Amino acid sequence: MSKRFSEVVWLEDLGRGDLARVGGKNASLGEMLANLAVSGVAVPPGFATTAEAYWRFVEANGLKEVVANSLAELEAGRVPLAEVGQTIRRAFLRGRWPEAAAEAIQAAYAELCERTGKEEVDVAVRSSATAEDLPDASFAGQQESFLNIRGGGPLLEACRRCYASLFTDRAISYRQAKGFDHLKVALSVGVQQMVRADLGGEGGGAGVAFSIDTESGFDKVVLINAAWGLGETVVQGTVDPDEYQVFKPLLSEAGLVPIVEKRRGGKAGKMIYAGGGETPTRTVPTSAVERDAFVLSDQEILTLARWACVIESHYGGPMDLEWAKDGESGKLFVVQARPETVQSRRDATTLRSYRIGSKGRRLVQGLSIGDQIVAGRVCLIESARDIDRFVEGAVLVTRTTDPDWVPIMKRAAALVTDHGGRTSHAAIVSRELGLPAVVGTGDATRVLHDEQDVTVSCAEGDEGFVYEGTLDYEIEEVGLEAIPATRTKVMLNLANPSAAFRWWRLPADGVGLARMEFVIGNQIKIHPMALVRYETLEDREARQVIAELTRGYDDKAEYFVDRLARGLARIAATCHPQPVIVRMSDFKTNEYAGLIGGSAFEPKEENPMLGFRGASRYYSPRYREGFALECRAIRRLREEMGFTNVVVMIPFCRSVKEADRVLEVMAENGLKRGEKGLEVYVMCEIPSNVVLAAAFAERFDGFSIGSNDLTQLTLGVDRDSETLAELFDEQDEAVKWMIRNVIAEARKAGAKIGLCGQAPSDHPAFAEFLVACGIDSLSVTPDSFLAVKHHVAAAEAAREQSS
Questions:
Q1: Is residue 378 part of a domain?
Q2: Residue 542 and residue 422 share a domain
Q3: 336 with 394, same domain?
Q4: What confidence tens digit (pLDDT) does each residue in 424-472 have?
Q5: CA-CA distance, 681 to 651, in Å (whole number)?
Q6: Is 527 an active-site residue?
Q7: Is residue 200 situated within a structural domain?
Q8: Given the residues 575, 684, 756, 790, the one annotated as active site
Q9: CA-based nearest residue to 673, from 700, 704, 635, 645
Q10: Is residue 141 pLDDT above 80, yes or no?
Q11: Which end of the chain is flanked by fewer CB atoms within 10 Å, N or C?
């Protein structure tokens, strides 16, 4: 600009210290433009109006008196909030621009056109209040944004509308709740070149990214949500976006693709330019191709994740970003950045755990926000026009929310919505309010009804559920500072990838048992052989279901490998770089037959517990191709994603000969023990594993004692028999003899040995026995971790005293 104006400043001339001058959003944009471009972070160019420009506009139009008098009427209770807000906004919209301010804004716009090489550049016009996006004040969407603005005149009108939005009903209520003086909060307007996320040439899209897991606070992942078109649909929660999660510690290693989650969202609509007129944007349905495709490629996901890490490092704390991809150029941009204000402030010394008792009928399910369980009565409200009839303490059920809903969200026990992802308005505000929510259910407003008693559970992982009736649940608080250190490692049994991140704060020594079959049953749901032999599968119904589940995968087998690798990656990430022991599939034939398409590939057995299970399947012609897919997933997990902390474990290996055959098949599939640091363990759950422990130790790097099966086969007692339940005793002397001897043999051979099972948490004496035998590790369920840690610490102390 040839002239210098105090009303306008270019974004690159701003920094974090200019918050009082241009508000949090604009100060942050300037900070990134000035400091992070060298690291590759791209921010669209633009300028900001200053707080001084706002006060000059207010003074020139006598608005201070209008605001003060109107708010005094509100405080006195003489005029309702809606009328007060409307009076103030009308006064702003009628206001005239001071000549210097109008000249400054139009001159800056003209220069932006020159810089971008466009005759009239499209711009995004966003509000940035001087008290907005502070660590203790960052509710979503208090002021307005206007997209697709072109020309100096329309820009001045959009800036005026931004000023007026400082006095929306929700903004007035918010400042009152936060204790801000209305006449001490100014507004800056950010004007940036629009990123043409609405164009489809290069697959334009937009969304939100967090440098921390928004639900668990796990600080080693970046969470990204993405949808086609302009990003407002993601923020508003009007579409169900794609969700990606990237493991940060492995991002810097060349050649790795540590994307631990890729969930395709419904993306039913997208916001695009309207082509002029009073309404600059409109929402249209997406095509079938768009709904079936991911918005971002793997490399684009990694780029955004790296930018999130750079921004987090620069600011020194977890960040909440908005990003956009230009459909003309295919380039990515960060369009906003602000501190994350929920998980980063959570008490890290206490872990609160909710556990539901017997479950009622599941009514709807969606994404879980928070980790609580709440029971209450439904209050169904489909439109913001009807929010006055909300019942205090009810479970609010609606299609979606925007900032107008915040006053009743504060009074709700829980929230359930039809639409929205983890970064939608409903999700963000629910977290800030500590309100459990299930979002993106698709059909809650159709299935649930007014005054229906329900239980909302957000304590079962990534998915949240609404159950019929008022159910019992327990709340347990674990003080993490009081957990003692032990020589014996205490590890976790984890099977559900969706819930794994909940336990990252526990000081566990790794994962001692990750059950692959649980991931297959819950994340994949299809028998691997039905994918390998899909073309010849005769079950029509199964073929239809498989076709639907594998949409987007040209190779049906790739669906299995991809989903299994990512599911296991979430578990491996939880304790990285501590070891994570993944047990290869150990379904019984009746359980395998229950998978989609499984009945065609499984024999019928009288006693599946002692039948075609574990190691015997892996080299058999009946399942060998299915096992090859399991091996492919492990290779991808270790070699392409970078989780070399993963140890492979073979279950139910009956003989040394069988061990050799399995290891040979694994090597044929690229998993050779000892290569690329690969360790292979074996379950010790059959008496032959104990009798020939020295021979097994020559073939495997370690043992994990499966006390349930070992007890069953040592005592000849069916572990599932109610009649013989009193005879099933892991502390029987015969079982303890087995355990004592295999530990001794393992230690003699230099092999590691642990135990995975419930007994050490239920019986302190059993934990003491294992410690006395010199066991290396115990692996227990997360809710048992604290008790076992204390049992082990006491046993170690007693042993030291006796010696």
A1: yes
A2: no
A3: no
A4: 888 888 887 889 999 999 999 999 999 999 999 998 888 999 999 999 9
A5: 9
A6: no
A7: no
A8: 756
A9: 700
A10: no
A11: C
User: Is 275 part of any domain?
Assistant: yes
Rounded Cα distance, 764 and 490, in Å? 14
**pLDDT confidence bin for 278, thresholds 50/70/90:** low
Where residue 135 falls among pLDDT bands split at 50, 70, 90? Answer: very low
Pair 65, 108 in one domain: yes
CB 685, CB 651: distance < 8 Å: yes
Say if residue 169 is in the same domain as residue 247. Answer: no
Are 414 and 539 found together in one domain?
A: no
Task: Tell me how far apart the alpha carbons of residues 120 and 326 are, in angstroms, rounded to a whole number.
Answer: 18
Active site residue 756: yes
Name the band, by pLDDT with cuts 50, 70 and 90, for residue 581.
very high
pLDDT band at residue 199, thresholds of 50, 70 and 90?
A: confident
Asked if residue 324 and residue 387 are part of one domain, the reply reads no
End-to-end Cα, the chain, rounded Å:
83
The values of phi and psi at residue 395, to 5°, are -85, 110
Question: Tens digit of pLDDT for each residue in 771-800?
Answer: 999 999 999 988 788 889 999 999 999 888
Tell me how far apart the 2 most distant CA atoms of the chain are, in Å.
94
| 634 CB neighbour count, 10 Å cutoff | 25
> Is 383 in a helix, a strand, or coil?
coil
CATH of the domain at 670: 3.20.20.60
Amino acid 344: pLDDT = 72
Scan for tokens 């007035």, then name that residue. 172
Rounded (10°) angle between helices 81-94 and 169-178: 110
**Together in a domain, 393 and 435:** yes
* 351 and 302 both lie in a single domain: no
Query: What domain range includes position 270?
Result: 205-343
CA dist., res. 642 & res. 260, Å (int): 11
User: How large is the angle between the packed helices 99-116 and 152-164, nearest 10 degrees?
Assistant: 120
Region 720-737: mean pLDDT is 89
State whether the Cα torsion 119-124-129-134 is positive or negative: negative
Query: Looking at 419, 425, 527, 791, which residue is catalytic?
Result: 425
Number of domains observed in the structure of the chain: 4
Segment 466-484 mean pLDDT: 87
State both tokens at 386. 């009807």
